[in-house]
Amino acid sequence: MTPAPNRPPRALRPLPSRRALLVDNPGPDRTQIAQHLRAAGYVVAEADSAAQALDLSRSHDPEIIFSAWDLPDQHGPEFCRAFRASARKVYGYFVLLTSDQDEQDIRDSLDAGADDFLDRPISDRELLARISAGERILRTEGELRASNAQLQSALDKLKETQSAMDRDLQEARKLQQGLVRERSGQFGAMQISLLLRPAGHIGGDLVGFFPIGEDRVGFYALDVSGHGVTAALLTAQLSVHLSGASDQNVALRAAQSGSDAVPPAALAHFFNNMMLEEMSTDTYFTMIYAELNHVTGEVRMVQAGHPHPMLQMPDGHVQRIGKGGMPVGVLENPIFDEIEFRLEPGTRLLIASDGITEACPPGGRLLGEDGLEAILRTNAFLGGHAFLESMAWSVSEYCRGDRPDDMSAVLIEYSAGTTLPFRT
């Protein structure tokens, strides 16, 4: 409904702590604007020139500004531009008083930063409308500023929390790397080398070896499903059961009592029962565990869902070993693949995690076992950690540095020229 022409303008609700700046020649218009601003709750500062107004704006920090178009020392749009360029704590709603300005003048004023215009002669109703529009903008700007302050505070706290988590994860990485106490070992003519490289701070891969009596050594490669803390905690627990320096080593318990060590398949079933009976989690893991007789070259191995071991012959030919088997911790009666074979002088055995075989560039294809075979053949002249580092570099280059999974590997090399004991 259109208000009656003779109805007096509705007074604005006073708002404390608002500040206004009025820049105009002394006269009726300036008095009229000042009265309405004070009635609306503003503390009003008045100036006769742009220079005086800029000085006042530094101390008064106004939130709404009414400026004449023609000032003694500067045009209103030029003063507006200078005002916008000054350092300010809050937004200033800028209204230019106009009379007979053309469209180009208005466009230039908007480019200079003006928010609104008020035509002379000034109507009380139009003046109150401009003050109300300014209030709405200032309220919204204040709410946004408060929200931004809260958001910034939350972000600062999040950064502090993230920094603390990063420090903890860095320490956890050191501890996890310490689970692999030895990265290489020499057993007669056999050399064992290990690679463990998490994709993030911590990971779910584990590799290692431990001696079993005088002529045998056990070695293993585990890959826990998932990433992060959950996988790392399970990895730490498994490392205790496979520690070579503790009577907690499941494989060595029988050997320490004078009996033979736990066979590889029996160890896999032990871990499977442990996962299903003692752990309330959906996590599972893949595993290779084997006993190597470093005198005869005999290997007894169990494969539980882990990628196929690669056996490289002296001539460079690569043979994949095993049928796969089921992961540990999924079914009550799993079928694991039990394998026996013999290493010959000049051969080497590589057991790699799926973080290597499943490496993939963005939008590309998996490296796969064929790619791993190619790496083995290309780096046939390298051995030990030099080979493992070259393999890790090749994988990272293949996936262009975007490696989402952990990399781990066990490399066993049988020195050429060694004669095995005669077998009938």
UniProtKB/TrEMBL annotation:
<feature type="coiled-coil region">
    <location>
        <begin position="141"/>
        <end position="175"/>
    </location>
</feature>
<dbReference type="InterPro" id="IPR052016">
    <property type="entry name" value="Bact_Sigma-Reg"/>
</dbReference>
<dbReference type="InterPro" id="IPR011006">
    <property type="entry name" value="CheY-like_superfamily"/>
</dbReference>
<dbReference type="Pfam" id="PF07228">
    <property type="entry name" value="SpoIIE"/>
</dbReference>
<keyword id="KW-0175">Coiled coil</keyword>
<dbReference type="Pfam" id="PF00072">
    <property type="entry name" value="Response_reg"/>
</dbReference>
<keyword id="KW-0378">Hydrolase</keyword>
<dbReference type="InterPro" id="IPR001932">
    <property type="entry name" value="PPM-type_phosphatase-like_dom"/>
</dbReference>
<dbReference type="InterPro" id="IPR036457">
    <property type="entry name" value="PPM-type-like_dom_sf"/>
</dbReference>
<feature type="domain" description="Response regulatory">
    <location>
        <begin position="19"/>
        <end position="135"/>
    </location>
</feature>
<dbReference type="InterPro" id="IPR001789">
    <property type="entry name" value="Sig_transdc_resp-reg_receiver"/>
</dbReference>
<protein>
    <submittedName>
        <fullName>Fused response regulator/phosphatase</fullName>
    </submittedName>
</protein>
